[in-house]
Amino acid sequence: MVTELRDGVWWLDCTGVNAYLVEDGDGLTLVDVGTPFDAARIEAGIDQAGFAREDVDRLLVTHYDFDHVGAAAKLAVDAPIYVGRGDVAYATGRERPPLQGPKTLLQLLSGPFVGDLPEDRVRPVDDGDEIGGFTAVHTPGHTPGHTVYLHEDREAAFLGDAVMEQGGSLRPSPWVVSYDTDEVHRSLRDLETRAGDFEVAAMGHGLPFGRRGSERLREAVDSL
Predict the structure, then answer these.
(1) CA end-to-end span of the chain
(2) pTM of the model
(3) Least buried of 63, 70, 195, 215, by fewest C-beta within 10 Å?
(4) Is the pLDDT of residue 27 over 90?
């Protein structure tokens, strides 16, 4: 299913996770790409939004997890893949996550289904990098390289799994799926001060918000 959240921002409802399509200047950006089983669904979503697959200029990955990078190597899209630097080694298969709790166990078990991203297409992302109309904010905690992407012109924040929607509110990434929940909280406080006002809050799980996104984020930070 494809839903336009705001002019130039589409929500692609994948298998228990969200991906997003953003019209960015003269090109198109795909933010997160679902599970390995979502490639056909995402390609259909690009078509339904009125674009061709060759219109996609880049893939922005918020973090290395089965349900956020899974379809990257399967899509009929030949574009650079931007990944937070702290997750690049895992995404390309140069390293495997260390076994240090339920989160990394999940990553290790799901790794064979994801496959490794092609190194020649991967671009490491650092805090503050500008990629097209997006600004990257390093938000570690859920994973070491977790990155939020802000788009000022579209008044949108692509939040990955830094937060999740539950019952109409945003909640921080819980301990069972995070490397470090204290760091999650620190990252959210930093993000809230840097993000400014935005309308669209586009998280990985739950229903995205098309309005008052920054207010929802502030409420989540206030509850920590």
Answers:
(1) 33
(2) 0.96
(3) 215
(4) no
Q: Which two tokens stand for residue 195?
A: 């993000």
- The amino acid at residue 204 is G
The C-alpha atoms of residue 119 and residue 123 are separated, in whole angstroms, by 8
What are the domain boundaries of the chain?
A: 2-222
DSSP H or E run through 20: strand 18-24
Q: How do 156-160 and 200-203 pair as beta strands?
A: parallel
Residues 23, 206: Cα–Cα separation, whole Å: 22
Joined tokens for residue 96: 């495997």
Q: Output the pLDDT for position 113.
A: 83
Q: What does the radius of gyration of the chain's CA atoms come to, in whole angstroms?
A: 16
Nearest CA-CA partner of 150 in 162, 164, 166, 165: 162
Q: What is the CATH number of domain 2-222?
A: 3.60.15.10
DSSP string for 82-104: EEEHHHHHHHHTSS-----SHHH
Amino acid identity, residue 165? E
Provide the residue count of the chain.
224
Q: In this structure, are residues 133 and 151 in contact, taking their beta carbons and an 8 Å threshold?
A: yes
